[in-house]
Specification:
Elements (H helix, E strand, L loop, with lengths): L3 H7 L3 H10 L91
Length: 114
């Protein structure tokens, strides 16, 4: 289950989230199983975030930083990752139907068993 403190920070919006992330760079954010369907998180810093089994379907995540994030088994149906940074992200077994990866950084992404 997702860490409730992390979810509470996330629900305050991108600006609050990014500021908190900047102040707590060594913390691995735990959003495992989080229900984030349809969230608008443009330019969010989700570096090194655990999003295993999270639901990000129909989310707007353009420009977001997902480098080193774990999105394995996540539901990403129709999510917008336009120009997102997915460098070294794990998308193993993620549900990717209909996602927009236009301009995204996909260097060293784990797309095994997708």
């Amino acid at each position: 289950m997702a860490n409730q403190e992390h979810l509470d920070i996330l629900k305050q919006g991108v600006d609050v989230w990014n500021k908190w992330r900047e102040e707590h760079q060594t913390v691995t954010m735990d959003l495992i199983f989080a229900q984030l369907k349809g969230i608008n998180f443009v330019d969010a810093n989700l570096y090194n975030t655990a999003l295993t089994f999270a639901n990000l379907s129909n989310a707007n995540l353009s420009g977001a930083n997902f480098s080193n994030a774990n999105l394995s088994n996540a539901e990403l149906y129709h999510a917008n990752f336009y120009e997102a940074n997915l460098n070294k992200a794990c998308l193993k077994d993620a549900k990717l139907a209909g996602i927009d990866l236009s301009g995204a950084n996909l260097k060293d992404v784990d797309l095994s068993q997708v």
